Prior knowledge:
Elements: H1 5-10, H2 12-27, H3 33-58, H4 67-78, H5 96-101
Amino acid sequence: MAVRHESLYSGLSGFNGALGCMAVGGLFFTFNWRTHLYAIASAFLSAYADIALSNLLGTVGLPACSWAATMIATLMLLLSGSLSTYRIPMGQVMSPEHNLRSRKQWKAGNTAEGESTDV
Length: 119
């Protein structure tokens, strides 16, 4: 990925990718093979966006922090399209462990109260 060795060895290059993957893969969508691939794509996009934001904001002396993961997770929620049936309603998002435990309630658009799954 043409990453500087200092940021790679210190772990900075992988943080936003892992954070974006966790947000999409376990927090906002139920876990299945389609959302798993979506989460992997989110991880790659978050890592690349982190590098781009670090270079852009580094010229003015600002840190990129976790902006890349936040922007990519928001973008993935807006562009979910065919995966919208697997989206967890915003009012019912809990921890990833709770979402995984109650997976049977979140099957393909069958929410408990019948709420909309739009963002």
